[in-house]
Amino acid sequence: MKLPSLRDVATEARLLLIGIPVFLWTMIPIYHMFLFAISPKEDAFSGKLWPDHPTLHNFEIVFKQQHYFLRDFYVQFWNSLVIAAAVGVLTLFIATAAAFSISRLKVPGGRLVMNLALFTYFIPAAFLAVPMYRTMGNYGLLNNHWALILAMVTIASPYAIWVLKQASDKLPVELDEAAVMDGATTLQIFRLVYLPLMMPSLVAIGTYAVLLAWNEYLYAFLLLSNDREITLPVALGNFLAADDSPWELLMTTGFIYALPPAAVYYAFRRYMVGGLTAGAVKS
Amino acid sequence: MAITLSGDQSIPAPPLSSRLTTTQVWGIALLTPYLLVFLAFVVYPVCYGLWLARAPSNYVALYNDPIFARAAVNTLIFLVIGINIKMVIALFLSGFFAQQRTWIKWLSVIFILPWAVPSIPTILSVRFMLNPEWGMINHYIFAFTGDDGPNWLNDPTVALTMAIGVHIWKSLPFWTMILITGRLAIAQDLFEAAEVDGANWWQKFRFITWPSMQTLYITCTLLSMIWTLGDFNSVYLLTGGGPADLTHVLSTLGIRYLRLDQLSLAMAAIVCAMPFVLPLIYFMMKRLSR
Fold it and tell me: Which of A43, B90, B133, B168 lies at a CB distance of 3.0 to 4.6 Å from B175, suitable for a disulfide?
């Protein structure tokens, strides 16, 4: 066995000197949330790093909706789920159609539309929220799930179109030409050639849109207000309305709310890293 | 009937169907869904908002509102100081994570968590940690020093710093990840050659890493600045703009006006930011649309 040289040890020590603070920095807020979720109320407020009596009682309260703030937990969870799924499906449909049209069919004016979409992508979301709120009011959609779905589709599509266009530009033109030779119609090319080849990017974009909608707070709390229409993040924000908020329940609900996106993210990480980061910034 | 080819361009246009090929019809049809969304939820709101903000009296009112001036300064601090600190750390950490070690690989999986989880519960978690009476941080300050810790979120400077910290916590993983891809694209033999020539780490960074990454780094910084303008959560969920509306940034201020039913003021505040935002957007579009 070869003993590590002094230089190797020094390098490793220096790396650890960076690694440990990075680990703590990343984990402390998340651990703190988890700690609250498994602590009875007295322990949560005592500042202990591990509760004397760890318990799942908070989860029980949430799942049985046994608190005033949690009385619509399942409805709100369902709302979040339905809205995220709808945004995912609609964004995929709109963006794939647009990217196919711009990149493969070379529709006249396609470049202009791409630039308009890109411009939208760069408008800060919180700025667009102000006129969007009034617009949804004008359309009579306030307090309707469609308001949030359409707003999120508007925000998700530009990036989706851009990434999908980049990806489809890379597919060889010969594929389309060969298919046309064989007498394929445009729709057949789209369905049988284009969609299968684009699968990895489609998975990445679908995931992106779903997570964006699930995580959205600002638009959700502007556009929805009725207790049975709001999504989970808005419900979490409403906890703060009271002075004696049950923080251990807030953190428990937040923990439950944070699990699905984290799971989805890690499940699709391979696609996300390849499909999104490469597209996010072109060097 | 004889067709006269005169120069007066009075030739009747052929019917639409024969001018467009089937492909083009399909192209337009497939582009229509997005165009509808764009018209209904981008063009109309933006035009409507600008129309609401047209009266000069709005800008006078903004000018006289001390909260607006404060928010503008806060936004500037957030962008210029916050983002640059974040990007320098990201650049540094991208070098760390590019090291080939198993434990670093695992750490990078954990490191991405703040980006992967929604911001509401984690920001609220930080908010409670900073609670002066019950929070973890002051509990330990008291345990170790016997003194009461500061009332973190009650001091505008500290509160804004904490909001910037939360923003960095949340988005650092994303930018680090992007910079790692940039770093891994650099040809390794450059470093090997430098090693042979006896270059130290600073020289390697100065003459190999930085030249190959500076375009990416600057693009990322500008992009992050544009996006951070729209970062509503970090400030709103941590400080709510308080104490005394001193920690607002433009995005939370816009929503504050909106909630006070002063939509035209909200739009005017956004219009005031445009001279700074539009050049950034223009620059980014130039970079990305080619």
Answer: B90
CB of A150 less than 8 A from some CB of B: yes
Say what the pLDDT of residue A173 is.
Answer: 83
> Which residue of chain A is at minimal alpha-carbon distance from B271?
A127
Cα of B61 to nearest chain A Cα, Å: 18
Looking at domain B32-289, its CATH architecture is Orthogonal Bundle (1.10)
CA A135/CA B76 separation, integer angstroms: 29
- Distance separating alpha carbons of residues B164 and A6, to the nearest angstrom: 40
pLDDT class for A151, splitting at 50, 70, 90?
very high
User: Cα torsion for B27, B33, B35, B37, to the nearest 10°?
Assistant: -170
A119 in reach of chain B (CB within 8 A): yes
Across the interface, whether the CB atoms of A132 and B45 are under 8 A apart is answered yes
Q: In the block, which residue shows the tokens 């449909």?
A: A93
Q: What is the 3-state secondary structure (H, E, C) of chain A?
A: CCCCCHHHHHHHHHHHHHHHHHHHHHHHHHHHHHHHHCCCHHHHCCCCCCCCCCCCHHHHHHHCCCCHHHCCHHHHHHHHHHHHHHHHHHHHHHHHHHHHHHHHCCCCCHHHHHHHHHHHHHCCHHHHHHHHHHHHHHCCCCCCHHHHHHHHHHHHHHHHHHHHHHHHHCCCHHHHHHHHHCCCCHHHHHHHHHHHHHHHHHHHHHHHHHHHHHHCCHHHHHHCCCCCCCCHHHHHHHHHHCCCCCHHHHHHHHHHHHHHHHHHHHHCHHHHHHHHHHHHCCC
d(CA A232, CA A220): 9
The pLDDT, as a whole number, for residue A242 is 72
0.95 exceeded by pTM: no
Rounded distance, CA B189 to CA A231, Å?
52
Residues of A within 8 A of B105 (CB-CB) are none
Return the residue in A122, A152, A161, A269 with the most chain B beta carbons within 10 A, the one to mutate for interface testing. Answer: A122
* Chain B residues 10-29 with CB within 8 Å of chain A: 22-24, 26-28
pLDDT value at residue B18 = 55
The pair of three-digit structure tokens given for residue B152, joined into one six-digit string: 């973190």
